[in-house]
Structures are given as structure tokens and as C-alpha cells.
Design brief:
Elements lengths: L8 E6 H14 L5 E5 L1 H5 L3 H11 L3 E4 L2 H9 L6 E3 L8 H6 L2 E5 L2 H14 L3 E7 L11 H11 L5 E8 L10 H15 L7 E5 L1 H5 L8 E4 L27 E6 L2 E5 L4 E2 L5 E2 L4 E6 L15 E4 L2 E6 L7 E5 L8 E5 L9 H7 L4 H7 L5 E5 L2
Helix pairs in contact: 1-3, 10-11
The structure holds pyridoxal-5'-phosphate.
């Protein structure tokens, strides 16, 4: 997909905010703990290659990505710190990962056996992290017998270096501790079966770190908080108080490309879901669902100049329309998303409008949108 750099629409990323969140995340760690910055999905839409060096400078000890290609992208961008892939990769890719010094998670003995063949052929050793399913129901070992067999398989096996053992919490972002405590118990039990000693034990995501729901661990996989977003933001419910102030970094800015007056009975957009009740001023913004600004944004208010104006008519593929309070000139600034967490068009408020979480909204914005890095 081509990034449209010659149009008046871009995501702005406040680099100073990312730096500050990273520094604060690092300060918040327990003595000796390492900070692994989660930059999967292009750093939650903020730009992984641009921001990894900023995070490194601010104290990142390593990076987590979702898939091998994201790790390779970082290596191509000269990132030399450890990189851990969080999702399962085909065993056939074990050599590619090892050759690029990228660590992979492991969830089954069969995977290890297949990967070992590939690694032996190339004479490579792969760094692995044993994934434990302590209650997330996603990936990882959950049965004692399976885990013991893997432990035996890995003893004195030089095709692998057991760099980590980890689990992921399903409810670290909630005030309820019961399920979290259950997961901790499961994890500790499986850990007790291990005679192979992983270098790093890790359990925390942003929520577990910020809401003091963690156990002794060697590193923290810090994601959403780096982008200044509170992990506890379920639609319609109050946020938990984070341990330090989070500064959102993403704003989304465009401008009016066209302004006109319409009259009573005149329709706007596909299906004419908006019909003018009288004389109305309508502005057009050059952003649409092909950018990830989806049709469900119809009705959401964006800031035009200094007034919040509702999106009227259906959002088109590449444009949408707003109802203006008065005539405004083409070229007037439109702020679709504000980085001010208190603004009615914050990422959090947009997520509420879409009945989802801001993680998802940030990831919706795709590569057609240019990313501009401010406050470097
Ligand atoms: C995405 C992810 C994280 C980071 O989660 P945040 O809520 O963004 O901090 C940590 N660990 C795993 C396994 C993940 O998939």
C-alpha cells in the first residue's frame, strides 16, 4: 500500500510523549527487571521502525513483536537489542529466526522436534521462550505431562537456548484479582516442574506492571502504556488509576478540502443518511474507511477549527463529510483524533464510540496514512 504523503491527512506521533512513557515505565520496574517494549503491529499503529530507537535510548532492554516478519523489520533497521516474537511461528522458520538472533515462543514438543531438524541442518541455535497457558486459552503448555516431556527433551539439547518462560494474563486490567491469582498459581506450578532453568521468567504486560498485579519476574512486556494509553479502558467503564501519568502520543490531523452550503431536503453521502433540515454548511475531509476511518464513525464529532462537528452521511472509502455550524474556509484544520486524553475526540473516546478498545482503533489506521513524528 502506498503511503499518501501528498495529501493533507496524517497521523502525528509525539515522540517526546513516547520517550517519557518509556522512561517512566523503566523507572517503575523492580530492581533488576528488564523493560521489553512491545512494538507489534507497527508499534500499535505508531510506527515501529521510527520509535524503536527512541525507546532504546529511553531505556528499552529489548523488544517484543507478534510475528517473525516484524522482528526482521527491526533487524533490518539496525535494532541490535534482543527481540522476542510473541506468537507461534512455523517450525520451518526456526533457522531464519536463529540466523537473525530473534527468539521464538514454544508451545509443543512436536514444534521443537521439527525446528531441531531445521536448525541442525544449518548448524544454528535458536533462543526459545516456553509459553505457558495459565488461563488465557491462547498458546502455551497447560498440561504437566506435556511440559515434563519438553523439559526432558531440552536437557542438554544444544539446538536450543532456553531464554525464557512466560505466561500472559487474561484479566490484569481488571480490579478483580481472583482469576489473576488462579493464573499465577498455575504458572508457578508449571515452573516448579522445570529443571531446565530459563534465563528470564516473565509475566507482566502493561496492566500487570501498572496495577501492581505481578509476581517476581525478570522482565516486563510493556505495550499499550508506551503509547500513553491506559490498558484498563473497557467501553463505558472507568479506568483504573495507573502508577504514573500516561501521555498519549497519537493524533490524527487533516483539513477541509471543500465547503459548500446545501438546502432543505438535500442529501449527504451514500444512501443519503443525512438530509438537510434547512440551509446547512457541509465540509468534506479527505479521509475514509480505506485509511481505517471506518463507517461506524458516522455521528462521531471531530474538531474543525475549534468547534466539534458531527460526521454526517456515511463515511466513504476516501472522504467523509461534517456538518459545520457556519461557513468555514477550505483548508481549515480538522483534528479527527486528539492526543489530549480529556478531549471528546481522544482515542479512548473514539473507542467508546466504536464500542471497542483504543488498542483496536490505533491498529485500524493503516499504511496509506503518513506518520509524522513531532517533538523529536
Ligand atoms: C500484546 C502483548 C503484550 C503487551 O500488552 P499491553 O497490554 O499492550 O501491555 C504482552 N504480552 C503478550 C504475550 C502480548 O501478546
Amino acid at each position: 500500500m502506498i503511503t499518501a504523503v501528498n495529501r493533507p491527512a496524517a497521523l502525528h506521533i509525539d515522540v517526546a510523549a513516547i520517550r517519557e512513557n518509556t522512561v517512566n515505565a523503566k523507572k517503575h520496574l523492580k530492581p533488576g527487571q528488564k523493560l521489553f517494549c512491545v512494538v507489534k503491529a507497527n508499534a500499535y499503529g505508531h510506527g515501529a521502525v521510527a520509535l524503536a530507537p527512541v525507546m532504546e535510548e529511553a531505556g528499552a532492554d529489548g523488544f517484543c513483536v507478534a510475528m517473525l516478519d516484524e522482528g526482521l523489520e527491526l533487524r533490518r533497521a539496525q535494532v541490535v537489542k534482543p527481540i522476542l516474537v510473541l506468537g507461534l511461528q512455523p517450525a520451518a522458520e526456526a533457522a531464519l529466526a536463529a540466523a537473525n538472533d530473534i527468539s521464538l515462543p514454544v508451545s509443543s514438543l512436536e514444534w521443537l522436534k521439527e525446528a531441531e531438524q531445521v536448525l541442525r541442518k544449518e548448524g544454528l541455535q535458536l533462543k526459545i521462550h516456553l509459553a505457558i497457558d495459565s488461563g488465557m486459552g491462547r498458546i502455551g503448555f497447560s498440561e504437566d505431562e506435556d511440559f515434563k516431556r519438553v523439559n526432558d527433551y531440552l536437557k542438554d539439547n544444544d539446538a536450543f537456548f532456553v531464554e525464557g518462560m512466560f505466561t500472559h494474563f487474561a484479566s490484569a486490567d481488571s480490579a478483580d484479582h481472583a482469576y489473576f491469582d488462579y493464573q499465577v498459581k498455575r504458572f508457578k506450578h508449571l515452573q516448579s516442574l522445570l529443571t531446565v532453568k530459563p534465563k528470564w521468567i516473565h509475566v507482566d504486560n502493561t496492566a500487570a506492571s501498572l496495577f501492581e498485579k505481578d509476581i517476581d519476574s525478570d522482565l516486563v512486556r510493556f505495550g499499550i502504556g508506551l503509547y500513553g494509553l491506559n490498558p484498563s479502558s473497557a467501553p463505558g467503564s472507568a479506568d483504573l488509576e495507573p502508577a504514573f501519568e500516561l501521555k498519549p502520543a497519537m493524533s490524527f490531523v487533516s483539513e477541509l478540502t471543500y465547503v459548500k452550503q446545501i438546502h432543505k431536503g438535500y442529501g449527504v453521502g451514500y444512501g443519503s443518511t443525512h438530509i438537510a433540515e434547512g440551509d446547512e454548511w457541509i465540509g468534506t475531509v479527505p479521509v475514509g474507511y480505506a485509511d481505517g476511518w471506518i463507517r461506524k464513525f458516522q455521528g462521531f464529532k471531530v474538531k474543525v477549527g475549534d468547534v466539534y462537528c458531527p460526521i454526517v452521511g456515511r463515511v466513504c472509502m476516501d472522504q467523509f463529510m461534517v456538518l459545520l455550524p457556519k461557513e468555514m474556509p477550505a483548508g481549515t484544520k480538522v483534528e479527527l483524533i486528539s492526543k489530549d486524553p480529556a478531549a471528546p475526540n481522544s482515542l479512548r473516546k473514539a473507542a467508546d464510540w466504536l464500542d471497542t478498545i483504543h488498542y483496536e482503533v490505533a491498529c485500524l489506521f493503516n499504511d496509506r496514512l503518513a506518520r509524522v513524528y513531532d517533538n523529536k
